[in-house]
């Protein structure tokens, strides 16, 4: 009873505190949600007091209407009216009229040249609400600030935004370009505005052609691509010739490794510099060129890494298939196979890292970035289905490199062919046939089919030589000849001698079958020894038959028919 009383007293003390904390948390969450729901605009006392009253036809009630009005006014040269769609709060009141018109002009140039307007993300509702999928962060909520685009300035991206501002208690909220964006316009215009060379072009080259491009762009871009490709080809050719003529080993190494990366970087640098410094292209072209140039630079870096490691691996990897096939070079075969696996690993890692860098570097707020991210799943499915055989071969080649079922230099029997594994590539295995020809076998087919590997683990084996002899043949005499023949061979190739045996396997009407067991420790030489021993045994049998007048070999078909 005393314990029960203590528990009741403790509950009476703690429960009110817990209940109070719970109610307070609910109140805070409710207040935060209410406060967030009420943030439908930015509040200010007045907007652009230094400007004259806006035209009655000016529509700034929705994001789409504000942007359409700005484009319409600037296209017709009404920059003073377009200044009402800018938040000029950071400018002195007396300078807002003059500087506002100037900023409107500069912003219109940027809109034409560098900005790709995301019309799909611009709502035609005052609260900026977009209808759509619940998984899209831009839909299903009230917004007071909209990102139009991001432009690079000083090594970082600066946003270009539309804000919803309520100038006073009784005024209606309007959508205008944010004051932070207006502050960056002069610097952006200096970087992306018309260059001195463009201002010197004749007027007929600066007229619109199609897709929002100027006529000079239509003529300039194909010529620029040809010049860039030609420069890249010259760079590749020069580095190739220098690599062939270089006397120092490290110089040849560097020139071979960086031929393709240098050509790609030079080509991309010419196009990038010409389209951003010499003649600044329009936003549509820039939206296409920027990801292409990014992919080119990342690809060049990845190729430089892959080619550098490739040259290093070529230097340290034994690559002579005949030397690797020597039974004493089992460790070298393992090293060569490990290096081949490392080569594949470097390529796979380089591709994955390059793909990640491209995706991360792509502006997620840009149309291209959204398209890449949105279509990643579909592209993966399509590529996976189309390249399923290639991907299967790549995985199979990695499997061979890991489990070492066939190492570079191993000698094996594949589908009746005596071969040496010469190379294990991503998609195929290159086998050197005994007659000097090459078998190119898809990796997936190679690993799914059974084969004899004569070089794995213990390379010693016993080769059977089966002869059909006469019923009266002197097997003991041929046994002595067989051991004498083995004694004359290289002991490194014929061993261990305790495995050398002679057995009578069978007997029928045609004669007896005798198996001479030839032990060999070298898969590269056993074939010659086997053929040579077989020939000597047959010659010895014929000689015994002639000298001792005892039939050693079975009768020929013509003799069998003679009474």
Automatic annotation (TrEMBL):
TM region positions: 214-239, 260-285, 291-309, 341-362, 368-387
Alphabetical list of InterPro entries matching this protein: LSM_dom_sf, MscS_channel_2nd
Domain of life: Bacteria
UniProt KW keywords: Membrane, Transmembrane, Transmembrane helix
Pfam families in the cross-refs: MS_channel_2nd
Domain Mechanosensitive ion channel MscS: 390-455
Name under which the protein is recorded: Mechanosensitive ion channel
């Amino acid at each position: 009873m005393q314990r029960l009383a203590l528990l009741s007293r403790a509950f009476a003390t703690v429960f009110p505190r817990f209940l109070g904390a719970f109610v307070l948390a609910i109140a805070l969450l409710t207040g935060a949600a209410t406060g967030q729901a009420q943030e439908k605009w930015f509040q200010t006392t007045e907007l652009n007091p230094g400007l004259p009253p806006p035209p009655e036809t000016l529509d700034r009630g929705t994001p789409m209407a504000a942007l359409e009005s700005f484009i319409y006014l600037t296209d017709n040269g009404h920059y003073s009216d377009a200044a009402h769609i800018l938040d000029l709060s950071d400018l002195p009141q007396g300078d807002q009229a003059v500087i506002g018109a100037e900023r409107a002009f500069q912003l219109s140039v940027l809109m034409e040249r560098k900005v790709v307007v995301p019309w799909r993300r611009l709502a035609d509702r005052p609260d900026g609400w977009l209808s759509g999928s619940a998984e899209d962060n831009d839909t299903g909520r009230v917004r007071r600030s909209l990102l139009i685009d991001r432009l690079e300035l000083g090594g970082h991206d600066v946003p270009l935004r539309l804000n919803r501002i309520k100038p006073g208690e009784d005024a209606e909220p309007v959508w205008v370009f944010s004051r932070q964006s207006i502050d960056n316009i002069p610097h952006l215009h200096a970087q992306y505005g018309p260059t001195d060379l463009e201002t010197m072009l004749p007027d007929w080259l600066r007229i619109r052609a199609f897709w929002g491009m100027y006529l000079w762009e239509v003529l300039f871009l194909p010529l620029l691509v040809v010049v860039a490709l030609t420069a890249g080809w010259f760079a590749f050719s020069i580095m190739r010739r220098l690599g062939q003529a270089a006397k120092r080993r490290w110089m040849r190494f560097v020139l071979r490794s960086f031929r393709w990366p240098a050509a790609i970087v030079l080509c991309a640098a010419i196009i990038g510099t010409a389209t951003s410094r010499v003649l600044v292209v329009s936003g549509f072209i820039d939206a296409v060129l920027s990801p292409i140039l990014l992919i080119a630079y990342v690809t060049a870096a990845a190729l430089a890494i892959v080619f550098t490691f490739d040259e290093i691996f070529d230097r340290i990897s034994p690559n002579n298939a005949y030397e690797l096939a020597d039974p004493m070079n089992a460790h070298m075969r393992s090293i060569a196979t490990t290096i081949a696996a490392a080569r594949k690993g470097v390529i796979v890692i380089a591709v994955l890292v390059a793909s990640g860098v491209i995706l991360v570097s792509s502006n997620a707020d840009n149309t291209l970035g959204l398209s890449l991210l949105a279509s990643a799943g579909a592209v993966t499915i399509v590529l996976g289905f189309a390249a399923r055989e290639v991907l299967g071969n790549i995985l199979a080649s990695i499997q061979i490199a890991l489990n070492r079922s066939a190492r570079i230099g191993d000698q094996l029997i594949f589908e009746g062919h005596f071969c040496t594994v010469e190379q294990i590539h991503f998609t195929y295995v290159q086998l050197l046939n005994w007659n000097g020809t090459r078998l190119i076998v898809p990796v997936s087919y190679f690993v799914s089919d059974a084969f004899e590997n004569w070089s794995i683990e213990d390379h010693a084996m016993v080769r059977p030589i089966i002869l059909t002899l006469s019923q009266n043949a002197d097997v003991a005499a041929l046994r002595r000849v067989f051991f004498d023949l083995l004694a004359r061979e290289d002991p490194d190739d014929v061993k261990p001698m305790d495995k050398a045996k002679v057995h009578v396997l069978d007997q029928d009407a045609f004669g007896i079958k005798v198996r001479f067991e030839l032990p060999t420790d070298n898969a590269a030489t056993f074939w010659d020894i086997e053929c040579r021993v077989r020939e000597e045994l047959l010659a010895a049998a014929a000689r015994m038959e002639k000298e001792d007048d005892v039939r050693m070999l079975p009768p020929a078909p013509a003799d069998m028919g003679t009474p």
